[in-house]
Description:
The protein contains 16 helices and two strands. By secondary structure, it is mainly α. The radius of gyration is 22 Å and the shape is globular. The two termini are 34 Å apart.
Amino acid sequence: MALTQTPAAGVPAASGAEKARRMAVLWLVTGGTLLVVLALAGMLLRLTQSLGVLSDQWFYALLTLHSAGMVAVVLMTMAVVLRYLIAGELPIVHWVNVTNYALTMIAAVLVVAATVIGHFGTGWTFLYPLPDHPGPVPGWSPNWAYPYLVAVALLAVAFTLWSLEVLYAGVRRFGNPGRMFGADILTGRSKPGDPDTTNPSIIAAGVMAIGGVMTVIPGAIIIVLMIINNIDRSFTINALVAKELIYFAGHMLVNFDIYLGAGIAYAVLPKYVKRPWKATRVVVFAWWLTAVGIMLPYFHHLYMDFAQPAGLAILGNVASYASALPTVVVTVFTGVLLVYRSGLRWRPAPLFIFAAFAGWIIGGTGALIDSTPSVNEYFHNTLWVPAHFHTYMALGAVMFLLGGVYHVTPELTGQELSDQVGTVGARCILAGGWIVVLTFFASGAMSIPRRYAFVPVPLFEQMATVGLIGAIIVALGILLIAGDLFRVYLPGLTSRSLSSYNSPAIAERSSTGA
């Protein structure tokens, strides 16, 4: 059902609002297309493990494309959706938005070239010295490491620009970083919900922005070092230092997805329950802990590195548990309270948000189990790792993203997405998705290793076949929703004016620095 196309009274035609709208439409059309393609690539990987469709060389190349591509596209698309949702309070700087889009698209092209043309197959981690020492099988020219590493660098630059723009807009809006992050609420100088106070979505975006700035330094260092090594093989890198830098930056970028999703939930859910989600002291304090805690858990990936100091392993274990609790518990618990007895109508947007809560909690619990050293001894680099990752990414972060997309679509296009298609698509994604991750969890519990095209152990092929059935069900849901999204969004790319479906919400998405 289309929204009214009568311009809202008293709403000026703002060129900044139109630019913000058109860029949001462009981002979502492009991001949606890439996500569909990358998800289908993931299904092809499961098909190969079950029926041996691809050669080893193609399997590892598509594995790299699927993993790196999904992380990058979900990250930047979620960042754009959250930024659009808070643009009413923190106006968008248009040139940053355009630059980020350009950098992300160039990075996408480079990753596709490296993997599809060059068969670069390190996986998203590109651990040293694998990029320039591929071995005879699957094998690739070390020269294909250059476009991949440059793509990673461009993505880091894009997210850093997004981060700096958020912090700039927040400080400009609230006068100082403390008020942006709720220091006045924490000290009692302001009450939650008071005029001119911050809100949870802005705090979440700000914390991710701080993390984004923190990732660029170690990320830049390791990329430069690996490019130099690729040029001059006599220049070597300490393998453990390289792994530290990669996992510090990479682990944070991967985890940003779910926290950006929490920011989307803070903005979307109150619109459907007709209740405010305030930045209380507990919420503020939880996000302050997350700002520090998100930087430390990556040490749990290095338990098997015997040269790693034991104190860092202990820190990684403690930080894994400590960082997981505040934001997850506070966000999900307060979200449930927000909905309780609200008379909520379960349309696709809130349905996706609550599905994301489940994926976040269960996937996070799987991560905590694996971060326990005595368990990690058996689960390290097994299919348990993609199990918990796919749970909080595909069934968590992507669900948050879809909830945000269903919410902003009427503002962006003047049309509603079909509730029926959204509900059926959600059921397919959830039913198939849980089949996929449960086969991963079961395989991980059997110590079946990850990143293998084939493992000659009992039940591996059977598990992969069951996972393939789940992936096909997921693909059906994705295609249903994608078809409805393109039906609504593609006309928005050619619309030159907001005049046909202006609304106060769109007019708020003004931009500066045009």
